[in-house]
Automatic annotation (TrEMBL):
Keywords: Hydrolase, Membrane, Plastid, Protease, Serine protease, Transmembrane, Transmembrane helix. Belongs to the peptidase S14 family. The chain crosses the membrane at residues 196-217. It comes from Geranium phaeum. The gene is clpP. GO terms for biological process: protein quality control for misfolded or incompletely synthesized proteins. InterPro entries: ClpP (IPR001907), ClpP/crotonase-like_dom_sf (IPR029045), ClpP/TepA (IPR023562). This is ATP-dependent Clp protease proteolytic subunit.
Amino acid sequence: MPIGVPKVDVPYDDEGKIPIRYHYHRKKKRRVEALDKNKEKEKEKDENLDDKTHTENPNNNTDSDTDVNYNTDSDTDVNDYEPSSQEPYKARVDDVDPDDSPYEAAKKRKKKQEEEETNWYDLLEVLYCEGLIFIGQEITKKLANSVVGLMVYLDQEDQHDRHPTMFINSPGGFALGGLAIYDTLDLVRGKAVQTIAIGIAASIASVVLIGGGLRVAMHNATVMIRQPRMKVFRDEASEIVLESRILLDLRNSITEIYVRKTGKTHMCITRDLEVEKFMTAKDAENYGIIDGVAAKKTDDTMFDLIFS
């Protein structure tokens, strides 16, 4: 035996080393002993818990109503009913059968509460479902995409045989977005969208207004037409030249739209677009941008014409 090795009954090999097989059996024995100890502790714990339960409830009355626990998914607990109330159970919970179990009674009570809850809806979503479209801000790419998608959806899914109505109160905005809305108005000619100007319809918003099937302006509405404008010069010269060409094409397209819709000459429209031309509702009607002006007083004939 090598020097310094404790005197333990361990089989050594010829070189004085402990074989690997012995290490394996020792570790396995320790694991088994640890598992046995854990099982004994759990068994003692369960026995102590049973003794404590019998001490607190010596009669072992498990059928008591206070120990009944119905495992339900309902958020309403049957214990929510006030036991101190002297009213009969049927009077406190309507539409409850006296033969119902507490679980069934709680389920009916929760269903009644859900029916009584008020459902809130977004106003614009409700109006969109009725075919009423609102452009109440500057026309942007995001707004143009939303309006175009909504018009196409209403044209495909409208089952009430009614014409969508678009209310416009916009200072203008992104010219290409406005032209996208105008082209979509021509696309859904099967059920022409009626356009109504409220407040102001300026710049590219007036192009959207003029593209409707029936074009109406409120008495105090204002319409303004002008040529498209370029953004502030911050780009390189080559980009400015390219943008100027695009801007010229936009101006020609918008001019052709006004000429076709109003019946004015090309020279007249070109001259009027040089400056910002503001028009009242009556002036816009005379100019040919709208078909009529809504009266100040509620006129059943006018509204039947608009919303029919």
